[in-house]
Structures are given as C-alpha cells and as structure tokens.
Amino acid sequence: MTTIPAYFNILITTIKPINNDIVDNTASNNEYGIRLDNSNNNDIVDNMANNNLYGIYLDSCFDNEISGNIIANNDYGISLYYSYTNDIVNNTASNNEYGIYLYYSHTNDIVNNTASNNDYGISLNYSYTNDIVNNTASSNEYGIYLDNNDYNDIVNNTITYNNVGIYLSNCNSTEISNNYFSGNGVDIQKLEVDDPFPIEVVLLIVLVISIIIIIAGMIISKRRRARAEIQRVPK
C-alpha cells in the first residue's frame, strides 16, 4: 500500500492503480486537485481541495472510499464519471458549482455528507442504483438534483433552505422517504416530460383513421354500384 504524503498546490494522480492512501493533502489552484483514472480500492481521506476546476475527480474507478475531505470553491467538488461501487462518506462540499456530481456512475453510496452553498448540492446524471442517505443539503440552488436517473434511493436526508430541495427530471423508480425539509422554496419538484403520444392523441388518430376507412369504403361501394348500373343498361 502506498501513502502519498501531504503537499500544497499539487495535482495528485495514482502512483499505482490500486490500494493507495491519499491522505492529508491540500490541493489548490489546479485543473484537477486529486485525480484517479482506472484506479480501484484506494482511500482518499482528510484532504482539502479548493479553487480547482475539479476538486476530487474519479474516472472509471471502482471500490474507492472518499471520506472526510473538505472541498470548497471548485467548479466540481467531488465528481465521478463512469465509476461504480464507491463510498462517498462524511465529506464537506461548499461553495462549488457542483458539490458532489455523478455522471454515468452506478451503485455508489453517498452517505453523511454536507453540501452547502453550491449551485447543485448533490447531482446525478444518467446514474442508477445509488444510495443518497443521511446527507445534509443546505442553502444550495438545488439541494439534490437528479436528471435521467432510475432506481436511486433518497432517504433520511436533511434538506433545508435550498431554492429547490429535491429536483427530479426523467427519473423512474426513485425512492424518496423519511427526508426532513425546512425553509426550501420548493421541497420536491418533478419535471414530467409530456408523453409524445398521450392517450387523447392516440384516440383521435384512431378515430380519424376509422373515418377515413369508412369514407373510402363508401366511395368504393358507390363506384361498384355505378359500374353495375352501367352494365345493366341495354345497348
């Protein structure tokens, strides 16, 4: 196991692909504060990342623990891309555009974090079967924001003083239970995308087609009768 010592103003990447400890570092004013690519079973613990484009960034990473970090004033605080079965626990993300952000990342646990004064406290896009449990989302534009996600659980969170507490768009089978809401502009906002073919439209189309078929049948029948009358006229 490798332990990376504490430095100031550095970009930290994995020294070897698995089983690293990244502990007690301060990473500031970088494009990436702490970045892991294709790296598994690492502990990213008790670091500070501020004023970076990405505070802590994981791409295609599995089974990592991200805990006890203080993430502030980044564009993206803690962000996971195409990453699975990671634990994001007991972190503080404040004054970022995105406090905690998941993109195409599945089966992760987001537990006991504090996200405050971000544009998006906890945000998931195209991410499935994640657990968002026992977090505090306070004074964000959006406390918890889900867009195009299915089968996620949002349980036992404290969601206060956000413009929108929980926002859902194009989300199916999402459990929202036992959360505490206070002082939000809107506690839960769901954007329902209109069905491109609602039942009323389908019925109208069926009716129009039926009328066309009936009229066409009447015209054909009338023409047949006319031909029959012509054939019966003696020459």
Helical region count?
A: 1
> What is the 3D shape?
elongated
Unreliable stretches (pLDDT < 50, length at least 5) are 1-10
Q: What is the CATH level 1 assignment of the largest domain?
A: Mainly Beta
Residues in helix, %: 10-25%
- Mean pLDDT, to the nearest integer, reads 87
Beta-strand percentage?
A: 35-45%
The radius of gyration is: 28 Å
Protein name: Carbohydrate-binding/sugar hydrolysis domain-containing protein
Pfam families: NosD (PF05048)
Keywords: Membrane, Transmembrane, Transmembrane helix
Transmembrane segments: 201-220
Ordered list of secondary-structure elements with their pairings:
Elements: E1 2-4, E2 20-23, E3 26-28, E4 32-37, E5 43-45, E6 48-50, E7 54-59, E8 65-67, E9 70-72, E10 76-81, E11 87-89, E12 92-94, E13 98-103, E14 109-111, E15 114-116, E16 120-125, E17 131-133, E18 136-138, E19 142-147, E20 153-155, E21 158-160, E22 164-169, E23 175-177, E24 180-182, E25 186-191, H1 199-232
Parallel strand pairs: 1-2, 2-5, 3-6, 4-7, 5-8, 6-9, 7-10, 8-11, 9-12, 10-13, 11-14, 12-15, 13-16, 14-17, 15-18, 16-19, 17-20, 18-21, 19-22, 20-23, 21-24, 22-25
List its traits.
14% helix; disordered N terminus; 235 residues; transmembrane helix; eight-stranded parallel beta sheet; Para_beta_helix_rpt-2; Pectate Lyase C-like; nine-stranded parallel beta sheet; 25 strands; 2 domains
